Amino acid sequence: xxxxxxxxxxxxxxxxxxxxxxxxxxxxxxxxxxxxxxxxxxxxxxxxxxxxxxxxxxxxxxxxxxxxxxxxxxxxxxxxxxxxxxxxxxxxxxxxxxxxxxxxxxxxxxxxxxxxxxxxxxxxxxxxxxxxxxxxxxxxxxxxxxxxxxxxxxxxxxxxxxxxxxxxxxxxxxxxxxxxxxxxxxxxxxxxxxxxxxxxxxxxxxxxxxxxxxxxxxxxxxxxxxxxxxxxxxxxxxxxxxxxxxx
Length: 247
Ligand code: 6SD
Description:
Bound molecules: 3-(4-methoxyphenyl)-1~{H}-pyrazol-5-amine
Structural class: alpha/beta
Distance between the termini: 55 Å
CATH topology of the largest domain: Alpha/beta knot
Shape: elongated
Helix content: 25-40%
CATH class of the largest domain: Alpha Beta
Largest sheet: 5 strands, parallel
């Protein structure tokens, strides 16, 4: 897979892409990341990339010319791959979108700066708009890194473990069960006995119940779309009946 990143601060991507799972995925040829400095396509003497907004008001706006020039130069005209704009106005990013992005051969991401981008960029170049949540950060770089990280780890072979990301929170539509490692007792807190039993069926059943309980307590909204067995539903019924008992 190839990813092209367009930004006014492409240097911020480097340290994050240089470590851990993403670095390994790049080294193993699973993903190729090219970051581009939009300023390199600014044609005036001062390499200007922003200008005042028509209609007045505060803040500056990302100019269309350098963005069109950069995107058309790198992706062709018209571009043949999706161009995602990181913006608080986009659709909310989730694990399903991460999975869809991980299956593309080629993806481009545009990171805004300033108070906004000229609307003609959105109209003529952008094919999809994604938000990482209902809060505002200073530019699209951190949001882009978040979606990059989320989908690169889903590319088959990116995680060392052959089971990959299948147990991750949200992969099953549920939150993850609790994890324990050694020592068996730490500051008076013991590892649940079932995890030391060696009984794989019982361990799987305990983990499933814990995942269901956590999701029920913290993110009950997720239960509407999770795929649940008859046994899961019976267990959730039990939890909700316990809630209704006095005391
Ligand atoms: C100015 C940006 C680009 C500013 C953003 C995206 C989300 N979900 N929060 N903030 C954002 C993206 C903010 O360029």
